[in-house]
């Protein structure tokens, strides 16, 4: 489960980590004082580069900027809220994260002295990247302080607490980018990304997070792929991608819409898919159990209405509420096919036209 930035920051704050003072805004009639940073609460990264993080210095700019952000989708996600934060004077931006390394079944502490929106352009091999345990966390924090050339008095308590939150919250990822060293030599979490282990839900009755579309399993396979896929269940979604490739077509993505998929979350997936530059067709393969075919059908109908230049869809639906779905689709003249094979044959005609 991926948390939104404001949810992630609340968890960090509750553990005693420093976050900027902020207010969550869902409508525009709220009294705020500049200067502020206004941040779109969407479950995707790279908002800064895509216009989702804006600094406002005058009172008159606040309302129009919030209105703009609320209606401005980022990578297909429209925010339901905006985080308004005090503007921090930055001295340095660090990158710091804790994550599960599945290969070695351990937790890794990864960091870079140059964080911020250009972090991907850092030279490979210059990362701080070490295994960390409850026994070694002090030592690692010391090493990290010297790697970052930052006072151990600041870094050590920060890393200690971060490690404690990571394990206590059953996180699989906590990424702070930027960790801001402020002009007054304090540390503040400028941004926070947290992913929690769904399998640990039973241990955390306190977990109440917004169900964002990112909680569906959407993975880009080839940015230049010709065939996008929408399926339900990890197994069927993988089989669908494999079948596309076995038919000599390049799959763009893997998507398991999950049992709780609704019209909105599926529609968001369509919006993500149409951002791929070379997608020529979308193959939809649903064998509904908990998922309901009529929710999928409604999303298909909405996608056709809302998305201009939607590529041709080849749809195979079976299972729960198939009849209801079929009625909805027939009313809109949207055909379905009987099998995945038929969908792939039709897709080939489009891809190799
Ligand atoms: P992301 O692009 O989605 O990762 O969004 P971030 O929250 O990381 O913000 C992107 C960038 O905006 C940061 O790397 C900072 O350079 C800048 N930024 C964010 N908050 C502040 C702030 O309070 N003060 C200043 N000066 N810059 C900020
Ligand atoms: Mn960031």
Major sheet, described briefly? 6 strands, antiparallel
Sum up the overall morphology in one term: globular
Low-confidence stretches: none
Number of strands: 15
Secondary-structure topology with pairs:
Elements: H1 5-14, E1 22-25, E2 36-40, E3 53-56, H2 59-70, E4 82-86, E5 90-101, E6 106-112, E7 128-132, H3 137-148, H4 152-168, E8 171-182, E9 187-189, E10 193-196, E11 217-220, E12 227-231, H5 234-246, E13 253-256, H6 263-273, E14 281-288, H7 293-306, E15 313-319, H8 322-331, H9 340-351
Parallel strand pairs: 12-14, 14-15
Antiparallel strand pairs: 1-4, 2-3, 2-4, 5-6, 5-8, 6-7, 8-9, 8-10, 11-13
Helix pairs in contact: 3-4, 6-7, 7-8
Describe the structure.
The chain has 353 residues and is an alpha+beta fold. It is built from nine helices and 15 strands. Strands 5, 6, 7, 8, 9 and 10 form a six-stranded antiparallel sheet that branches. Helix 3 (137-148) packs across helix 4 and helix 6 (263-273) packs across helix 7. The longest helix has 17 residues, at 152-168. It is globular. The model has no long low-confidence stretch (mean pLDDT 94). Residues 37, 39, 45-48, 53, 87-88, 90, 93, 116-117, 177-178, 190-191 line the site of guanosine-5'-diphosphate. The site of manganese (II) ion has 2 residues, from loops.
